[in-house]
Amino acid sequence: xxxxxxxxxxxxxxxxxxxxxxxxxxxxxxxxxxxxxxxxxxxxxxxxxxxxxxxxxxxxxxxxxxxxxxxxxxxxxxxxxxxxxxxxxxxxxxxxxxxxxxxxxxxxxxxxxxxxxxxxxxxxxxxxxxxxxxxxxxxxxxxxxxxxxxxxxxxxxxxxxxxxxxxxxxxxxxxxxx
Length: 178
Hints:
This protein has helices spanning about 20-45, 65-75, 110-120, 125-140, 150-170; strands spanning about 1-5, 10-15, 55-65, 85-90, 100-110. By secondary structure, it is α/β, with parallel strands linked by helices.
């Protein structure tokens, strides 16, 4: 497992079951560093969840179509490729306060090929779509679920929009090329 450099707030332990180039690995680290700053703002300033940990830890699997389809089938009984899967440690951090300094949110799996397809379909860069899926998964790990109701879907969309807006603002000139 490739371990991310220690962040001020977010530590991502990631593993890729597909071959990422050295450039892709560097870009992934840059994007996740930026995501750390955004997540800290969302939790501490915007109250995304009740807890206010000093550090958040997430496990990330970057995988291919076959692996994500198997995970989706095994854990969600949906025999199809999907873009991101979330496996939370806690049922709902929106209403439960965890008083640990370090908070392990859970596991994420993001499908590399599906991310590429969606980026092309949406006419955006690969890393723009990847980071959107990363935040989508993080928000799921905290107890939000767009499949429950229209109200939940709108709430999740609102948090995703806040995350991406903050990402864009913090990114500025540091933005990696897609």
